[in-house]
Fold this sequence. Notes:
Low-confidence stretches: none
Oligomer: single chain
Helix content: over 70%
Radius of gyration: 14 Å
Mean pLDDT: 89
Strand content: under 5%
Distance between the termini: 33 Å
Number of helices: 7
Shape: globular
Amino acid sequence: GEAFILLSQLYKGTDIDKALDAVSRAIDAFDSQPEKKSDAYVLRATMQEDDDARFDDLEKAFQTNPKNKQAWLQKIVLLMQQNRYEEIYEAAKKFLDDNAEDTEALAAAVE
Length: 111
């Protein structure tokens, strides 16, 4: 799994299809490691060009690990890009429910 993550990051700037393939293989490899699998979904979401695919990967990240901070922050950023204010509020509230001590990360995401 880790090797596929490294490959995906190497390819990210040069060949997005190879990067997506590598991170998809990492997701499969992390079946027994929910936190790593969730992180891999977040990584793949950041590589997707289509917003629906991004949201889909973030949803899978939440299903795998509902407390994944990076997934929540990525979702908030994506919602902000789409001016979906009610959903931003709900996502930020959920993030803070699980991460009350991490207001700086939320503030950085919404800047």
